Amino acid sequence: LSTQVDYSFDELATSRSATTDSRAHTGSLRFDYVVDSLTAVGVSGSARTREGDLSQFVLGGFVLASPRDIRTTTDSYDVALSIQRALTPTMNVSIQAGPSWVVSKQEVDAAGAIPAQNTRDETLSFFAAANLRKTFKKGDLNFSYSRFESNGNGATSSSIVDRVALNSGYRFDRDWKLSAALSWSRRDQVASGSALGSDERLDRWITIWTLERRLTGNLIARARFQYTNQQQRSDQRSSTESEVLSGFLSLRYTFDPIVF
User: N or C: which end of the chain has fewer CB within 10 A?
Assistant: First the structure.
C-alpha cells in the first residue's frame, strides 16, 4: 500500500494594470494497493477552491475603481477509481472512472439603487476511460476508449463526449520507424429547452502517419501526414462537413550532453 498527499497554494496580487486578486488552495490524496503480481487498484481524490475579488476595471486604457465589489468562488471536487491488470506478459489493461463536481458562486455588493446580486452554479460530470496495451518484439499497439458526461448545470445544454483511439508503432531496424494513429470522437450536445438552442452532434476523424529515419547518431529526419474529417449536424441548421490535409518534413538534431 502506498499513499501520496499533495497541497499547493497560489496567489495573484493586484498590480497597476491588473483588475483582480485571486488565490487558490489545492489538495489531493491518493492510495495505491498492489493486490498481487498482476493486479493493482487505486483511489484518488482532490479538492480545489479559488477565490477572486474584482476591485478595478479597464475603460479606454485607464484602470478605474469598480463601483461594486465583486467576489467569485469556484470549488471543484474530483474522485477517481482505477484498476490495472496484466493479462499476459506483453498485454495489460487499465480502467479509470469517477465523478467531478464544480460549484461556482458570485457575490456582487449593492450600490445605490442597484440591489446585491448573488448567483450559484453547479455542474456534475462523470468520466470513464479504458486502455489496452500490447507490446511486440519490434512495436506496440494501444487501444483506448473514454467517455465524458456533463449535466451542464441543468439550465444549459448537457454534453456527452465519446473518444476511441488506436495507436501503433513499428521499428523496422535501428534507423527506420513507422507510427500510425487513428481516432474518432463524437460530441453530443443536448439543449434543455428550445430557447437555449438546438441539439448538435459533432463527429471528428483524425488519421496521422509518421515516418522517421535516423541519419546519424544525433540527426533524425521525420515526415508526418495528417488527415482530419469533421461533420457537424444540428436539428435547426443544415449539416456541415470539412476536411483538412496537412503534412510536414522536419530535421531534429540532438546535442551531446555537456559534462562539467
Answer: C
